[in-house]
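Dear support,

I submitted the protein below through the web form. The confirmation email said the job was done, but the results page showed an empty box. After a refresh the structure appeared. I'm attaching both so you can tell me whether what I see now is the final result or a partial one.
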Amino acid sequence: MEIRVSHEQGRVPITVFHLKGELNHQEPLHSRVQEAYDAGTRNLLLDMEDVPYISSAGLRVLHYAYNLFNSGEQQSSRDVRRGIVSGDYKSPHLKLLRPSKNAMKALSLAGYDMFLDIHDDRKYAVSTF
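What the results page shows now:
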């Protein structure tokens, strides 16, 4: 997997990871997510247009990123769970952009679309942070 990094400025600074290749291992994405967080990134947009496939290992690293970037949230885990079930909660700090058809299928089957904002338009995605 190739990862190219760019930055956007919305209401808050946003780091964008442009992913290319199959997301079928935890590495290198796991390390890059941790490095970005350790360097002060608090809002991450994953551009998944060039990700044709997501395996269970790929889903695990997305879940890891979700937990890491939402670890400082003030809401209790109980409130977040209720919000996910009711459809009122989406991660404010981790969002996805343009997942391929196959990637979107994996995300939906795993239920990730219940707690992650998934956008088709980059400008709009940036504005939602």
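Response: this is the final, complete result; the empty box was a page-load delay. The chain has one domain: 2-127.
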